[in-house]
Amino acid sequence: MSPELVNLIIQATGETLYMVSVAALVATLVGLPLGVFLATSRKGELFAAPKANATLGVVVNATRSTPFIILVVAIIPFTRLIAGTSIGSSAAIVPLTVAAMPFIARLAEGAIREVDGGLIETASSFGASPLQIVFKVLIPEALPGLLLALTLAVVSLLGYSAMVGAVGGGGLGDLGIRYGYQRFMPEMMLAVVVVLIVLVQAVQTVGDYLARRVNRRLRHL
Amino acid sequence: MNAHQSLAVAAPIGRAEPLELAPTMAEPMVRFEALSKVYPAYRDKPSVHALQDIDFSIARAAITGVIGRSGAGKSSLVRLINGLEKPTTGRVIVDGRDISALSGQPLRLAQRAIGMIFQHFNLLSSRTAAANIALPLEIAGWSRADIKARVSELLELVGIADKHDRYPSELSGGQKQRIGIARALATRPDVLLSDEATSALDPQTTRAILDLLANINRELGVTIILITHEMSVVRQLAKDVVVIDGGRIVERGHVADIFTHPRHPTTQNFLAEALGDAVPVSLASRLDSQPVPNGRAVIRIHVRGTDTGDTVVARLARELAIDVALLSARIDEIGGQQVGSLILGIPGGEAAWRQVLFYLAQHDFAAERLGYVA
Fold first, then answer.
1. Highest mean pLDDT out of A162-166, B93-97, B148-152
2. Of B118, B126, B138, which has the smallest distance from its Cβ to A118's Cβ?
3. What's the rounded Cα separation, in Å, for the pair B192 and B117?
4. Chain A neighbors of B114, CB-CB under 8 A
5. Which residues of B touch A (CB under 8 A)?
6. How far is B313 from chain A (nearest CA, A)?
7. What is the mean pLDDT of residues A7-28?
8. Cα atoms in the 13 Å half-sphere on the side-chain side of B68
9. Average pLDDT of the residues of chain A
């Protein structure tokens, strides 16, 4: 493989990492609180707001059921508003983030709901405020599950990032389509696939390791 | 089988008045005033009257047992005391404050004066023993240095100073409950609520935990409210007992009085289980309601009080010259008094057991005829 092609791969990998990491970061900052809210706002719960819970649930489901490639195109005006342009890696971060937010929110909700309700009751009986319960009980207790959820979200983002080539987002997927498929360069396709596999493996391994490290529940089983 | 036909005997000596708890100090620690709790109908479930006509006080610095079967309303009672639920009518006064009228930050401050321990310990798996104990202190906004000192003190108090850095998953049930107790006491509460705290523990560990609670009550003067379905727990620890059934208080008083003279059937059932008043299965299957030729009358003597039951059998046999058969016996010491029952077989027909009965009545023992065996 020529040095130019190797450079292309390195550049595309950099773009992918840039898009995925920024999107994952922003989506976590929004999705995690959203997930906490979804997990604590049903009737009789900590921040009981059944109407808001139901409404958010519908929005989350709607976003999640829209195919990503459609979402990318459908929110171009929004992307332009945020990023100033609808083309390029930075612009691609917008749809990636929009898609990852509800995904992370749902996974976080699941992880938070796994926490034993007795612990919420316990902290309440000690006079803990709802926010103290979230930060001192729910998030620390759900941490292993939350880390696995984030790992899954990052892996999914790696997959999604391949599609943003459609709006000139660049990255590994774009490289694979344009060189590997359209110019019929199987070695390029192979290289892209290998890099993606390595990235996914790395993310999953790190995620699993961190989740195991913070999990004190099964330590001695 | 009319085996429980009572025989007319003299009223038991020293019957106590179980309807009023003697206050140890002027102001009770917890006072329920005309309280009821109704959970409204929800979807296809009808409304539930969890508690009705609850009107009683819990003495300061004492250990009070609240006993009832599951579904009797014990959990609702606990949640009303620590303000996790509001009464439908009436009030709950804790240490002179109407906790049922508080909400938000004032409620949270009041809750910090009430410690609680749980059946399943409810420790955070993500925190070490020390960090679990620190939780209520962090919630109350203590400084880091104060927390550190207080946690060491508490670990020492509950006897697990060496488990400082252990996670709950590395500890036994008894050790976990010790952490639970230390955590509950962290903010120096005036009241400790124990919600079935020993129900998940083996008998030996239960004993150790109950001893620890007794020490805490004695040395720190903390009022302890024991919620349980086990009479043995109440017996070992409590001074006063409240029996609830179907959301109502059916009986209350000093443990020694209630145990010696239970009035309500629910209390009697609890006692029968705890004391072995129940007729052994093999004997019950052989019991006949009609006299059996050349058989024995089976009678049960209730031993309630300081008088010892063992000598009465010997005296009875000697003075009446009757070969009394001891069929079953169980005697425990409760609050310094002997409590239990003896089941005897009396040969010699109607005349003999009437004589026995008369003898027992003379000596102030309550007895009943259960039936006859061959």
1. B148-152
2. B118
3. 8
4. 125
5. 82, 84, 105, 107-112, 114, 116, 118, 120, 122, 124-127, 135-136, 138-140, 167-170, 187
6. 52
7. 95
8. 25
9. 92
Nearest to B126 among A122, A126, A141 (CB): A141
Distances (CA, A) of B320 to B316, B324, B371: 6, 10, 21
| Helix, strand, coil share (%) of chain A residues, nearest 5 | 80, 0, 20
**Does residue B20 surpass a pLDDT of 50?**
no
Q: What is the 3-state secondary structure (H, E, C) of B213-254?
A: HHHHHHHHCCEEEEEECCHHHHHHHCCEEEEEECCEEEEEEE
Does B309 have pLDDT greater than 60?
no
**Average pLDDT score over chain B:** 85
Q: What percent of chain B has pLDDT over 70?
A: 89
| Contact call for A217 and B116, based on CB within 8 A | no
Question: How far B201 CA sits from the closest chain A CA (Å)?
Answer: 18
Q: Map tokens 């001074």 to a residue.
A: B239
In this structure, are residues B95 and B113 in contact, taking their beta carbons and an 8 Å threshold?
Answer: yes
A40 neighbors A47 (Cβ within 8 angstroms): yes
Nearest-Cα distance to chain B for A115, in Å, is 10
pLDDT interval class at B213 (50, 70, 90): very high
In SS3 terms, B253-319 reads as: EEHHHHHHCCCCHHHHHHHHHHHCCCCCHHHHHHCECCCCCCCEEEEEEEEEECCCHHHHHHHHHHH
Average pLDDT over residues A143-156: 95
pTM of the model: 0.80
Nearest CA in chain A to B171: A220
Tell me if chain B has a CB within 8 Å of the CB of A130.
no
A59-63: list long-range contacts, CB under 8 Å, 24+ apart.
A59/A102, A60/A34, A60/A102, A60/A105, A60/A106, A61/A102, A63/A98, A63/A99, A63/A101, A63/A102
Looking at CA atoms only, how far is residue B28 from chain A in angstroms? Answer: 21
Residue B7 predicted with pLDDT over 80: no
Contact A107, A152 (CB under 8 A): yes
Whether residue B97 has pLDDT greater than 50: yes
Q: How far apart are the C-alpha atoms of B281 and B291, rounded to whole Å?
A: 20
